[in-house]
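Fold sample X.
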Amino acid sequence: MGTTPAATASRWLALAVLCAGQLMIILDQNIVNVALPAVQTDLGFTATNLVWIVNAYVIPFGGLLLLAGRLGDLLGRKQVFITGLTLFTVASLFCGLATGQEMLIVARFVQGVGGAITSAGILGMIVTLFTEPKETAKAIGAFSFASAGGGAIGPLVGGILTDSVDWSWIFYINIPIGIVVVALALRTLQTERGPGLGSSADFLGAVLVTAGLMLLVYTIVGIEKEGWASTHTLGYAALAVVLLVGFLIRESKAASPLLPLRLFRSSNVSGANLIQLLMIGAMFGFLYFGTLYLQRVLGYDPLQTGLGFIPVAVAIAGVSLGLSAKLITKFGARAVLITGLVLIGLGFVLFAQLPVDGTYLANFLPANLLLGVGFGAAMPALMMLGLSGATPEDSGVISGLFNTSQQIGGAVGLALLNTFATAESGANPTPAALTAGYNLAFTIAIGFIAAGLVLAVIMLKAAPAAQGAGQEGDAKTDTPAAPAVL
């Protein structure tokens, strides 16, 4: 294409800016878990309400990703990226300043909105910046590393800040980073002019799906207090179903739907998203209850807890960025996914047997490593299968759908697991009662993974060879030419 060295350097600097934005968003999803007990003590959260510190961020993030990606197409991805990052940074300030539960939850919700707006268009910008196949692969690898890096250092950074200063600094740290990234984005990212909003953005669809999913999680969280058959539970559940059905009806009739329903005719798209809902729901439970077990049962401080999660994060990053591509090329994405799910399931079997007098090396670390290796293998394979049949005009929305199902699976799965765990532990739990609750949550997570395995066997098909773009697909494998998005 004949680009000058200066232009090449500018593109890689722009990539660094985009990856820094992605790192911020992923870091914030993982940094909070370690600080939850400290936040609970300072602001008086109950065990049931504590989950809303996580879900208040995840629900708007997941619900708005599809709309945010569409807004980037219509208004220009640079403008949307900077707007989202600015909103995220300002919301981080208010999270740190929070003196009550309501203020923190509202600020976390706004953070989630900013996170969705920031991250939705990053991959699209990267693909636009790097069109040569070899460069594209390197750029996607950098993006994947940023995502994995956020997961790896989140618990550790959260532990260091909570232990050495206080929990509010897990949010304050975003402010200087956000300011620098916004300033660099203004200078390095290419300005795009989209066609404008007009009537193309499906705002009604976004409102329906976000409201429906938020209400669904609220209903699940309230089951432990209100009961399964209470008027409260049944009424709000019915309203959530009405909103989500309304979203499906809207998408079937909208001229430019937020989520074209025809995509679900592909068993790979449908199956991969369902499996991801179950797998991510289980993994969110691992991070949440694993943190609480280390701190409340084994007596770890926040820094020790953060260090305790480093092995799983390193295993995920190492396998997903290095080994998984070779395994998928040799054995096929479907076989690698099934193997990864089996390893994750075995990890949860060990977690479901955690004793009240356990030790990190004997009881926690082996399961930690099984989940890390299994997830690192399963996630890239799952995304390759889900994206394998995508046409150029569908690849963006399918990628957005994967992001959405990931976030919603985490929120709904964690809410469900937390409901059963707190019900099992009781109102004034001892370490033994807490352990029993965590073990029940991990046992239910085994069921999530088992259901994912069944879906993988009956729904997923070998991905077809790549068609045209990029590299040549190998007809003997189910590996598509399109790069995996982590």
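Fold sample Y, listed below.
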Amino acid sequence: MNLSRALETLKNEGYKYTEKREDILTFFNRENGYRTASDLLKFMAQKYEGISYDTIYRNLHLFNDLEILESTELDGEKHFRLSCGHHHHHHHFICKSCGRTETIETCPMDEIEKDLSGFMIENHKFEVYGFCPQCH
């Protein structure tokens, strides 16, 4: 998803445009990977003195609910990134150092389902963590 599509999604869902929201989305648009609320707060504090974690988290969760942002948990902390825009089933490799992500097109559930005969699987999440070539 790009910045203009993200702002359009906000508008179409009935949320008003604010400069802060655009700046938050600009931050994620320029990053190639997952970032924390702390990363975003540092970026936003340069322009918005006194901005609170409450404001940051409220917007992060709104954008996540609207599927503008994707989230994952890494080392016990929630990380966010701009939605990759893939509408087909896929997974991600996530660099533990820089947060860079790469799409994984194959799904291990094809094999795992064979071991769970008789079970009804409703959903799953599969992510691979490690280090990208630049961080390795």
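Sample Y note: The mean pLDDT is 88.
Also: Strands lie at 35-36, 69-74, 77-82, 91-95, 101-104, 127-130.
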